[in-house]
Structures are given as C-alpha cells and as structure tokens.
C-alpha cells in the first residue's frame, strides 16, 4: 500500500523486502529522501511497541499546538468533552461578538482534524458545535473551551492497533430521541463504533457521527 500527500509517500507492506524493492525502483527515476520507519505523517504520530506488537496513532504534538493557539495549554483538565445534561437551544440569541465568532470557527476547524485523525471520542461534541459555525453563541464558545479542557487531560490518548486479538466483529450503535441535546430541532443523532478483527488479527476501530435523521 502507498499513501501519497503531495510529494510525501508512506509505504506499507507485510515484509520489508517489497518496500526496499519499491524504493530502489523509484529512486532510479526520481531524487528521493528516505526517512526510514515513519514516526509522523501529517501531524499523526506513529509509535511501535515491538514487544507487545502494537502500533499507536496519536496527535499529541498537534493538539498541544491547538491548546497553545487558544491559550489553554495550562488549563485545568476535565474528564469528558461535555458536562452531563448539556442542552443547546436553536433559538438562543446570545450571539458571540465577531472576534469570538472567528476564534470559535478556527477552533472547531482545528478540532475537526483531530476528530478525523485519532480522536473519535470528541466526534459527537465537535460535530454538534459545528452546526453553529455561522452564528455561534457565547454558550457554544464556552462548550468549545470545555472540549479543550478535556483534551488537556487526555492528550496522550490515541488509537492502538494490535495483533493477537481473538475478538470478532462487534458493532455498537445508539441514537437519542428527537434531539435531547439540541432542543427544538426534533432530529435524532445516531452514532456507531465497529470493532473488526480480520484474519491477520488486526484490531480496527472506526467511528462516526451521523445527524439529520428525522424522527417521524
């Protein structure tokens, strides 16, 4: 497998022989720089534990930069992205000022990259707040800062791929009813997590948040 981003390539194969052969062949056609085993790719850090036979993907450095960007590098951590009982209102008119709005929009964009990379645990909260990018309120901004506090306390978390798992495919799914978190929109928010163990015993985790399912 070859992943390509502009002029950066990452090679993946079961054996190093195929990788070396490919690098030798492409090196005859182009000037290349071999960075050896990947440790970082597009802000996603790659670490290996050859004893436990695991590969961990995380974004600690990226998220540290996000915290610093918004002045939250020394903030007090919290244990969850949202507090229990959070309920947003569609008719809230306490809109944020222009400077706060721009900071909010920039922050949600930054968190989206983390969510799509190695932090599916913030998918629901970031997806919900992204519905208010055009007219965020002061409450939305406060909740955005709450996600940063959560990341402060969980910044080393990531996704671990391991060999040796005997687990078969297991799927978890759930949905609220008529938007318990978002008052007035009468739509359910659905989400799912799939644990998939292949013949190679590689544990793959995938998650997403799906909105806009109308409850009849």
Keywords summarizing the entry:
3 domains; 216 residues; 5 helices; alpha+beta; 3-stranded antiparallel beta sheet; disordered C terminus
Task: Chart the SSEs and their pairings.
Layout: E1 2-5, E2 8-11, H1 16-27, E3 40-41, E4 44-49, E5 54-58, H2 60-69, E6 88-89, H3 98-117, H4 123-129, H5 138-154, E7 158-162, E8 170-175, E9 182-183, E10 187-197, E11 203-214
Parallel strand pairs: 6-9
Antiparallel strand pairs: 1-2, 3-4, 4-5, 5-7, 8-10, 10-11
Helix pairs in contact: 3-4, 3-5
Verbal overview:
The chain has helices at residues 16-27, 60-69, 98-117, 123-129, 138-154; strands at 2-5, 8-11, 40-41, 44-49, 54-58, 88-89, 158-162, 170-175, 182-183, 187-197, 203-214. The protein has 216 residues and is α+β, with helices and mostly antiparallel strands. The protein has a four-stranded antiparallel beta sheet with strand order 3-4-5-7. Helix 3 runs parallel beside helix 5. Mean pLDDT is 83; it is low at 198-216.
Number of domains: 3
Residue fraction in strands = 25-35%
Structural class: alpha+beta
- Rg from C-alpha positions? 21 Å
Order of helices and strands: EEHEEEHEHHHEEEEE
């Amino acid at each position: 497998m070859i992943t390509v981003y502009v002029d950066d390539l990452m090679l993946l194969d079961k054996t190093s022989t195929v990788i070396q052969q490919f690098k030798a062949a492409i090196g005859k056609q182009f000037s290349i720089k071999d960075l050896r085993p990947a440790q970082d790719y597009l802000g996603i850090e790659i670490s290996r534990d050859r004893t436990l036979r695991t590969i961990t993907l995380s974004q600690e450095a990226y998220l540290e930069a996000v915290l610093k960007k918004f002045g939250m590098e020394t903030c007090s951590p919290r244990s969850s992205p949202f507090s229990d009982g959070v309920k947003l209102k569609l008719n809230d008119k306490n809109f944020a000022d222009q400077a706060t709005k721009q900071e909010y929009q920039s922050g949600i964009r930054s968190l989206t990259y983390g969510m799509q990379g190695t932090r599916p645990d913030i998918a629901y909260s970031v997806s919900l707040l992204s519905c208010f990018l055009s007219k965020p309120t002061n409450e939305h901004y406060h909740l955005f800062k709450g996600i940063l506090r959560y990341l402060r306390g969980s910044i080393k978390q990531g996704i671990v791929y391991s060999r040796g798992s005997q687990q078969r495919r297991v799927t978890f799914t759930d949905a609220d009813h008529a938007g318990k978190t978002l008052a007035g929109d009468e739509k359910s928010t659905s989400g799912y997590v799939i644990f998939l163990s292949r013949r190679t015993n590689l544990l793959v985790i995938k998650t997403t948040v799906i909105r806009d399912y109308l409850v009849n």
